[in-house]
Specification:
455 residues, mainly alpha, CBS-domain, Tetracycline Repressor, domain 2, 3 domains, 3-stranded mixed beta sheet, 6% strand
């Protein structure tokens, strides 16, 4: 039996066996490994050895390994094996894995895959493909244990034993009526603790947490995380059970959403491929649009500097404090926006909490701004003795900038959410650009008033 992934494996040793063509020894070691580790090993092989190693795996294990391979390896294997082998693999895959395969492979490869599947399997795959992308219906699987209310515990165990091999999970079972309406859920633990003659209808939990096929996948992931579910039933508009979403599907969704948020927060368009498998031109294309927007928006900052050029022409020393003010303001705003974006992502902050959030961030800004202002005032008085009013102007500007930056940083993500936009776009680059302009206006306005300068 493959190990559970806790044991380590010697990648170099396996590669050496493959290089020396000691395939019998290699097979003996591979069948003892977890399918994820085998897939990692196959990723390191060249094209020829990939097919050789894959073909020598037992059929059931080969299917599990295939589901873990990246798209390019899957495509190569499909193009290298017979129609019969391909049919066996696709028929053994769970429906959600088969759907992922069809969605990601090139059209020519997909055509061959569908040609070598049974009509009922092809119909099921096409049905899943019709669900909108990133919805519960698009990530669910149809392999689950469905029971009837009038079944006894003994009948349930017999049914589970018979159908478990084709089910993605058997721990949670779903109770339906003749029209596939979802009546309740029951776990194997519940069944084990009851006498054989008792009926499922008396045991099941009728308060079912479920999802609609059109629900957003991120919302489903949040719900499963909130209630600690291992699987969640998915029903159609008529409340009929059509599939389930398992915890492994949710983990993939959470990883995808987190990656997408990180990319948006760094002012990049999201990419569906891993970094090392994404082309240079694709990476550049994803980064250029936001960089253009931010570059053009920075002209506002330049315009402000031009407007107040008389101020720093009169006192050139004022210019040396601009980078410190802009950096501190940008960093302060980014801290707040990151906290709020994270809070909204996990459901801790809602748009209706905006007044509470602003009040809290203003108080945080006052404390942080005061500490930074005091430290800077001491540093500036030591560094620039005799320029007391300039030092006062800088620290007051710093204090105000921090408060304003914290306020902007917490309100923009909430505003984006209200406008049905992704709050992640209001992260560091965008916040920094806005706060830079605000901090300069605050700084030079204060300088003009406190130092009696004219613009």
């Amino acid at each position: 039996m493959p190990n559970d992934g806790n044991e380590t494996f010697d990648m170099e040793h396996l590669l050496e066996l493959a290089k020396e063509k000691k395939y019998r020894l290699l097979k003996e070691e591979l069948v003892e490994l977890n399918e994820v580790d085998i897939a990692s090993f196959i990723e390191e092989l060249d094209s020829e050895r990939t097919v050789i190693v894959f073909r020598m795996l037992p059929k059931a294990l080969a299917t599990e390994v295939f589901a873990e391979l990246p798209v390019d390896k899957q495509s190569h294997i499909i193009n290298s094996i017979t129609d019969k082998e391909l049919s066996e693999i696709v028929e053994e895959l769970y429906v959600d894995d088969a759907v992922d395969l069809v969605e990601e492979l090139p059209a020519t490869v997909v055509r061959r895959v569908l040609q070598n599947t049974k009509p009922e399997t092809r119909k099921l795959i096409n049905q899943f493909l019709n669900y909108p992308e990133n919805t519960a219906g698009s990530i669910m699987t149809a392999e689950y244990i469905g029971l009837k209310k009038n079944m006894t515990v003994e009948q349930c165990f017999a049914y589970i034993r018979h159908h478990a091999v084709n089910s993605e999970t058997i721990y949670t079972c779903y109770v339906m009526d003749e029209k596939r309406m979802l009546d309740g859920v029951v776990t194997v633990k519940d069944l084990l603790l009851q006498p054989y003659e008792r009926q499922v209808g008396d045991i099941m939990d009728t308060h079912v947490i479920k999802a609609q096929t059109t629900d957003d996948q991120e919302q489903v992931a949040d719900t499963m995380n909130k209630y600690g579910l291992l699987s969640m039933p998915v029903v159609d508009s008529e409340d009929r059970l059509v599939g389930i979403i398992t915890v492994d599907d949710v983990m993939e969704v959470m990883e995808e959403e987190a990656t997408e948020d990180f990319e948006k927060m760094a002012a990049m368009l999201p990419s569906e491929k891993p970094y090392l498998k994404t082309g240079v031109f694709t990476l550049a294309k994803n980064r250029i649009p936001w960089l253009l927007i931010l570059m053009l928006s920075s002209t506002i900052t330049g315009g402000i500097l031009v407007k107040y050029e008389n101020a720093f022409a009169a006192i050139p020393l004022l210019v040396s404090f601009i980078p410190m003010l802009m950096d501190t303001g940008g960093n302060s705003g980014s801290q707040s926006s990151t906290m709020i974006i994270r809070g909204m992502a996990i459901g801790d902050v809602e748009p209706s909490d905006i007044l509470k959030v602003v009040w809290k961030e203003v108080r945080v800004g006052v404390i942080v701004g005061f500490v930074l202002a005091v430290v800077n005032f001491i540093r500036l008085m030591i560094q620039y003795p005799g320029n007391t009013m300039i030092c006062v102007t800088v620290v007051i500007s710093l204090f105000c900038t921090v408060i304003v930056a914290k306020t902007i940083g917490c309100t923009l993500p909430i505003g984006a959410k209200v406008l049905k936009l992704d709050p992640a776009i209001m992260a560091s680059p965008m916040i920094t650009t806005i706060v830079d302009a605000v901090s300069l206006m605050v700084y030079f306005n204060l300088a003009c008033h406190l130092l009696d300068m004219t613009v």
